[in-house]
Amino acid sequence: MSRTYKATGINLKSSPLGEADRVLTILTREHGLVRAVAMGARKHNSRLAGRSGLFVVNQLLIARGRSLDKVTQAETVESYPGLARDLKKLTVGQYIAELCLFQALSDQPQEALFVLLNRYLKQLERSPSELVLPLLTLTLFQLLMLEGVTPEVQVCCATRQPLVPQWDDPQWRVGFSLPAGGTVTLEVLEELQQRQLPHYRTLNRAIATTKRQKGQLYFPLAAAELALLQAIAQAAQASQADPETLPLAQLVDLSASLQCWLSIEQLLRAYAQYQFDRLIQSATLIERCFLDAHPN
User: Fold this and answer.
1) Phi/psi of residue 23, each to 5°?
2) Is the per-residue pLDDT at 203 higher than 50?
3) Residue 244: what pLDDT?
4) What share of the chain is helix, strand, coil (3-state, %, to 5)?
5) Rounded CA Rg of the chain
6) Which of 15, 1, 9 has its CA nearest to residue 100?
7) Residue 216 has pLDDT above 80, yes or no
């Protein structure tokens, strides 16, 4: 086996090592998740200093090591400096990167995940402020699809009954069940809550991340929330069929409120954390980023 290999990768995480080095966690197209040392990357005059930054895409030559590999060459092919200048974009970028870390495998090609993340970062940097949250929720849904754990949102998971938002009734609700894998009628939701299994009563810590999610496996959805969730699912499916299509404009045209967008983000976050059994640490600042920008 050759002691060196080539890869194209996106830096997702870094940590200091010794006095001048960095350990990089890199999502590569060809070899999946790689952890490698960038020697001297913390020195100002190092050629690896800029190339070891967050979200920088490099063509790499890496030497295999006993415990950690070593970056011997790096040539930047793309970077997203605009993300670091916008706290909101940086936060949601780290959010999605962290979810990619949950999904990525080592020593296996990760073409689809690499392409999706790179496209997301590019779109995020270019997007105006009002598209950042829609882009986040759409990409979150796409990552769930890629992992094969897509939530059901068009029909009731239990009865297969189509669920259509009833706009004329302000009290109308449906449910969303994390254990069931998606939307359910309100009657099914109530039944699931009444016969909740014992091992669901002691919730995994990954569920308790926001006030709305804390201690919850089941969520009620109003008509506007269900409509937005269904629109996001349709947009994600359209984008999967045609990778060049990113129908954000159609989602924004729904005129959903900021709170509605945040509710759906929280719901999809809870679902992702339930599926991966891990907490998305970067997501804890989402509400503050968006609500502070819209105090009303």
Assistant:
1) -100, 120
2) no
3) 61
4) 45, 20, 35
5) 21
6) 9
7) no
Quote the tokens at residue 224.
């506007």
Place of tokens 């970062």: 121
DSSP annotation of 192: H
Residue 29 makes CB contacts below 8 A (sequence gap 6+) with: 7, 8, 9, 109, 110, 111, 114, 115
pLDDT tens across 103-140, in order? 999 999 999 999 999 999 999 999 999 899 999 999 99
Structural domains of the chain, ranges and CATH numbers in brackets: 4-126 (2.40.50.140), 147-293 (no CATH)
Tokens 């109003």, residue located: 222
**pTM value?**
0.88
Question: Are 63 and 4 within 8 A, CB to CB?
Answer: yes
* DSSP-assigned letter for residue 151: P
CB 179 within 8 A of CB 271: no
pLDDT in tens, 134-152: 999 999 999 999 999 999 9
- In one letter, which amino acid is 144? L
Contact at 8 Å (CB) between 66 and 254?
A: no
